[in-house]
Amino acid sequence: MSKTLTVEGDIGSADTRTLLTTQGSVTAPSLVVPAGMSKIDKIIVACASEGLAAGAQSYFLRLGGNAVKNGEQAIAISAAGMIAVQSGSDAAPQLMPAIIMENIDIAVSPSDNLTIAVEGAGTDTGTAHAVVTLIFA
Amino acid sequence: MSKLYRTRENTVSAVDTRTQLSTLGSETAPGPLLVPQGVTKITRIIAAQCFNMGAATGYSALVRLEGPGLSQGPECIGIGAGGVPVATGGNGVNKAIAIDMEIPVIPGNEILIFGEMCGTDVGSSEFVVTLVFE
């Protein structure tokens, strides 16, 4: 048996722990580990920047809260770079297909709360957007 | 025991230079990355890097693992390469790659993670590396 939990959000500032607490039209999804689940088995994640500032940034996920038995776990997601265009021209988009990380095996306690945050480190490349799905087992 | 995830990142701005990844975003001094108690090996490395496209040239990217926490000595892993033809208008994102491996470790000892850009100076490159202990 498995169960999913998805959150998303903007990552607006560099070097800032940004909590993901929304799910599109669902503005306050539950961040409680579903009953009967004991671990995070898979993570599906993507994060890319709009590229409105010149720089390079890396992005990583923070999984914490009192549900994570061994303390906060931090996991690399992606890295982005951008250099300003010449006047009158356009830059390519940033497109990141989601990564599916298998066999993650992070121990969690059911019915406790998770905090899910994404952080962009380095030099700001503009606002990024992240989406994270946790698959519990 | 479940898996433990430890991450460090940093900017690599000099070519052919080992640069330690010693920060974690808003945590500017997270301290040494010590091998957690109760684990025996690194079973996966998750890494991403991208450059700022500040110079019209190309490079490759390495991750180096060093320190007394590695019982078999240092490791070096290629994680990507890139380049741009002009130093204007570049824009891109690289997803993290996950590399399954089995590197024995010594609990309580430090592992140093370095990023390195090779080839020609492309400006700077941002690295993030996760070690998965088991």
Can you give me a brief rundown of this structure?
Chain A is mainly beta.
The largest pleated sheet of chain B is described as: 4 strands, antiparallel
Helix and strand pattern of chain B: EEEEEEEEE
Physical arrangement of strands within the biggest beta sheet of chain B: 1-9-3-7
Instruction: Report how far the terminal alpha carbons of chain A are from each other.
Output: 6 Å
Q: Can you identify the CATH class of chain B? A: Mainly Beta
Structural class of chain A: mainly beta
Q: How many whole angstroms does the radius of gyration of chain B measure?
A: 15 Å
**Helix fraction of chain B?**
under 10%
Count of individual domains of chain A: 1
Describe this structure in words.
The complex is a heterodimer of chains A (137) and B (134). The model of chain A has no long low-confidence stretch (mean pLDDT 95). Chain A has 137 residues and is an all-beta fold. In chain A, a hairpin with an 8-residue loop joins strand 4 and strand 5 (73-82). Chain A has no helices and 9 strands. In chain A, 45% of the residues are buried. In chain A, strands 1, 3, 6, 7 and 9 form a 5-stranded antiparallel β-sheet that branches. Chain A has strands at residues 3-11, 18-19, 39-49, 55-64, 73-82, 99-101, 106-107, 115-122, 128-136. In chain A, 0% of the residues lie in helices and 47% in strands. Chain B is mainly beta and 134 residues long. Chain B has one domain (4-25, 33-133): Jelly Rolls, CATH 2.60.120. Chain B has strands at 4-12, 19-20, 41-51, 58-66, 75-83, 91-95, 97-104, 112-119, 125-133. Chain B has a 4-stranded antiparallel β-sheet with strand order 1-9-3-7, with no helix packed on it. In chain B, strands 2-8-4-5 form a 4-stranded antiparallel β-sheet, with no helix packed on it. The termini of chain B are close together. The interface between A and B is large, with 53 and 43 residues. Strand 5 (73-82) of chain A pairs antiparallel with strand 6 of chain B, so a sheet runs across the interface.
